[in-house]
Design a protein that fits this description.
Blueprint (H helix, E strand, L loop, with lengths): L1 H15 L17 E12 L2 E10 L9 E5 L13 H9 L3 E5 L5
Parallel strand pairs: 3-4
Antiparallel strand pairs: 1-2, 2-4
Length: 106
């Protein structure tokens, strides 16, 4: 478990520097080692739906799979699930599930 936490922290720290330089496109094809399930509704507020994209390893390790949740920035004003999709793909390639969530914007 400790190795998983250290790995996730290291990925986030190493990837932070490339966050501004690396642009992700919503229709970018995920690697064959990653299964992407897009637009899963996880909450509804009136007629507003809040969704997430789930990135899963196609060959998961045995047992439970740890999940990392990524949340885009934007000060409650803008942003979407594509902002951290490249991180989620990396996590899934390394045996983690990753959920890129969005939230209600103002």
């Amino acid at each position: 478990m400790t190795k998983c936490v250290y790995f996730a922290a290291a990925c986030l720290l190493l990837a932070t520097g490339s966050l501004c330089a690396k642009q992700s496109t919503p229709n970018a094809k995920a690697p064959d080692r990653v299964k992407v399930v897009r637009d899963i509704v996880y909450a509804t507020y009136g007629d507003r739906k809040v969704m997430l994209d789930l990135y899963l390893p196609t060959k998961p390790p045995k047992g439970k799979i740890p999940c990392i949740m990524t949340i885009h920035g934007g000060g409650w004003q803008n942003g979407d699930t594509t902002k951290f999709s490249h991180f989620a793909k990396e996590f899934a390639e390394n045996g983690f599930a990753a959920a890129c969530i969005t939230y209600r914007l103002l």
